[in-house]
Structure formats: structure tokens, C-alpha cells
Design brief:
This protein has 395 residues and is of the alpha+beta class. The chain has twelve helices and 14 strands. Strands 1, 2, 3, 4, 5, 13 and 14 form a seven-stranded mixed sheet that branches. The longest helix has 27 residues. It is globular, with a radius of gyration of 22 Å.
């Protein structure tokens, strides 16, 4: 198992010996090779996502987030699963562990339990050595259900808080051609794509510094109008730098004026629309419709098989804060996808109660999200199942 956190005051000096320098270089090279292998594993995994990749970890490290990388191998030395686990702080001298888009488990139930047990055991060792109380482990898997986590005593969060990623999304299959995708769109969406073209809207990709400024201006304008959380320039600059060509900025223009934007991340065979926005002006041009249609064309040409709109209201929830943007996303055809709900494995109930008191948006069980509880009655646990293949953590 490897553990990597932001450096804390040790740096090479002129007094380093050649042998030490060579060993450090070899160690750095081995670590880089290990991360590349992990990225390939995540990209190929059915439930993998970019938030389990090395580039995302480097982005979060710039904001001071530590991480623990648990990379598990079978007896033949092949990666079998694991997780990159963030260490997130809150309040005064408090922290919790957070697995975004993970952990990555085998589909077979016994193998899944073996990997999950190994991940939990590794984290328990780190938790005991931590300088502060770790209240809980949060997981947000891309798996469709949470039966794999029931035997390990995971439960829905006690209350709402700000440490969440969307559990519902909408995805479009890019394996069909453009004509087939247009036909699969809702009539209004298809009409608006054509209308944007008739209005002279064009879609461009821009990798320049000017592009980031344009993106931020449109994004901030959208955030002000819709009361969305605003992210810093440094946050988006880090994404572009660490993901490199996998992070692309697209714009819909009309007469040289950029009206809408999108930040798209390619990871494996999936393209994810992570952030975007549009100006309030020239709404009649329907620029956002052509923007996403053309992005899908280009992502398909680049070899992606799916376009993830990254976050929608659950189907049928017309009063949800995301209902409007979700209706827009669903006009492109595709399918609604429900991931496993946010789940917490509580280490220290007193510390977790402090987390709820510090970070909770709601108070009392009656106001908590009850949707995950409804699923539990239909899912059986896997208590008593033992691993078939011994697992070991990478050194």
C-alpha cells in the first residue's frame, strides 16, 4: 500500500549522496509507474471515474488535501481493486476519510467483500496513527446499489452536508452516429440544435489562457444568476494543468461573442461535462444545445463511448433545485443513471456527532434524506462470506 500526502518540510539538499539521489530517483520512478498502472486500472473498471485518478489527486493536493492510496493485488500480482482515499478536514482539528467514485471492487460478491475488507483494514491502521480524530469514512461509488457495503456497517449520512457529489446523472451513448443521436433526442432538443445552426452559432475548442478567462467570466455570470457555488481561478487552472489534454474547454459563439461554455474531462472511454454556463443574452440562439451536441460529436470521434452530464435531479422530482438544468440535459436523449447513495462508515460516534453539528445543513432525523433507507429493505447483506483469493497491498 502506498500513502502520499503533501510534503511537510523535507527537501533534498546539496549534501545528498549519489547513492541516495539514485535511490530517490528510482523510488520516484516506481511511484510514477504505479500511478500510471492505477490509472489504467481505474479507466478500464466498469465503475471507475476520474476522481479516482492521479490527476484529480494532484488537483486536490494543491488545496491541501492529503490522501491514502490503497492499491490491492491478487496472488498473481495483478491489481484487484482498491481506492484513493482523501483526507478532508473540517472545523477545528477534525477530519474524515472520503472516497469519491470508489472504492473499486470486483463485481463478484466474494471478491468485492475481500477488497472492501482489505481497504477498511488499511484505513484503520492509518486512522489509529492519525494526529486527530477521524470521525468517519464516506464512500460515493458509481455502483448501482449499496449491497456490497451493508456487511461493512455503512449507513446513510445522518444529515445533509456540503461534502457530496451527485448520485444521479444522465448519460448519452456515443457509440451511435450523429444522425442516430439526433433522432434519439427529444423533439424540442433536436429542433434547438438546428435553430442554433440557423442562427449562425459555431462551437470551438480553445486551449489558450484567454479561454480560461472567457470560461470564468461566463461561469461566474451563471453562478451569480443561479446562486451557484463559485470556484476560484486556481481551481480550474489546476484541473487544466494536471489533466492536460484530457481537460478541454469548449465555447458556443455567435458573431465572435462567446455565449456558452463547457469544461469536459475525458477519462477512459467516458467524457464528463464537469462545469459550464451560459450568458443571459441572445437566448434565442439556443447556443447551449449546439454546444453539447458538437462536444458529443468530437468526443465520439476521440474514441469516447459515453457522455456523462454529471448531475441531475432524480427522475420525477420537479421541485428539485436542479429540475430546470436536468430537463435541459434530458433533451439530448440517453439514460438516467442512479449511483449508490452516499454512505458513511462511522469510526467515532462522538466525533461524527461533532461533524453533524459543525457541517450539517439539517437537524434531526426527520429532515435527513430518507431515500437511501428505502433501498435497504430490498438488499441482502453478505455477512460471513470470506475472500477466495488472498490480497496484498502494494509496497
Amino acid at each position: 500500500m502506498t500513502r502520499t500526502e503533501p510534503p511537510v518540510g523535507t527537501a533534498p539538499t546539496a549534501a545528498m549522496t549519489a547513492a541516495t539521489a539514485t535511490a530517490a530517483t528510482a523510488s520516484t520512478r516506481e511511484a510514477a509507474d504505479r500511478w500510471r498502472e492505477w490509472d489504467r486500472f481505474v479507466a478500464a473498471h466498469a465503475h471507475g471515474g476520474f476522481m479516482q485518478g492521479a490527476a484529480w489527486i494532484r488537483c486536490r493536493a494543491e488545496d491541501g488535501y492529503g490522501h491514502i492510496a490503497v492499491m490491492l493485488r491478487d496472488e498473481l500480482g495483478r491489481l484487484a481493486g482498491g481506492a484513493v482515499v482523501g483526507r478532508w478536514t473540517y472545523g477545528d482539528n477534525q477530519a474524515f476519510y472520503y472516497i469519491q467514485e470508489g472504492p473499486l471492487l470486483p463485481d463478484e460478491p466474494r471478491g468485492a467483500e475481500a477488497v472492501l475488507d482489505a481497504v477498511l483494514s488499511a484505513l484503520e491502521r492509518h486512522r489509529r496513527d492519525d494526529a486527530v480524530a477521524i470521525s468517519h469514512l464516506r464512500v460515493e461509488s458509481r455502483r448501482p446499489g449499496w449491497s456490497a457495503f451493508t456487511a461493512a456497517r455503512f449507513e446513510p449520512p445522518w444529515c445533509g452536508d456540503r461534502f457530496r457529489e451527485p448520485r444521479h446523472t444522465h448519460c448519452v451513448d456515443l457509440r451511435a452516429g450523429e444522425h442516430e443521436r439526433l433522432q434519439a433526442m427529444k423533439p424540442k432538443g433536436r429542433y434547438n440544435v438546428g435553430l442554433a445552426r440557423r442562427h449562425g452559432v459555431v462551437v470551438v475548442e480553445d486551449a489558450s489562457e484567454r479561454a480560461l478567462e472567457n470560461f470564468l467570466a461566463i461561469r461566474d455570470d451563471t453562478a451569480r444568476r443561479q446562486d451557484l457555488k463559485r470556484r476560484s481561478r486556481r481551481y480550474f487552472a489546476a484541473i487544466r494543468r494536471e489533466f492536460g489534454p484530457q481537460a478541454q474547454l469548449f465555447f458556443a459563439e455567435r458573431g465572435g461573442r462567446r455565449l456558452a461554455c463547457a469544461l469536459v474531462i475525458r477519462f477512459g472511454d467516458r467524457a464528463t461535462y464537469l462545469y459550464g454556463g451560459s450568458l443571459a443574452e441572445q437566448r434565442e440562439a439556443m447556443a447551449p444545445y449546439l454546444l453539447h451536441h458538437e462536444i458529443m460529436n468530437r468526443m465520439a470521434a476521440a474514441g469516447c463511448t459515453g457522455y456523462d452530464f454529471w448531475g441531475t435531479a432524480p427522475p420525477g422530482q420537479t421541485g428539485h433545485p436542479w429540475a430546470g438544468i436536468s430537463a435541459f440535459k434530458r433533451k439530448f436523449g440517453g439514460l438516467d443513471i442512479a449511483h449508490a447513495p452516499t454512505l458513511d462508515h462511522i469510526y467515532d460516534r462522538a466525533a461524527y456527532a461533532r461533524f453533524v453539528d459543525t457541517e450539517g445543513e439539517y437537524r434531526g432525523d426527520a429532515e435527513c434524506d430518507a431515500a437511501p433507507h428505502a433501498e435497504s429493505d430490498a438488499l441482502g447483506g453478505t455477512a460471513g462470506v470470506r475472500p477466495r483469493v488472498p490480497l496484498r497491498a502494494t509496497a
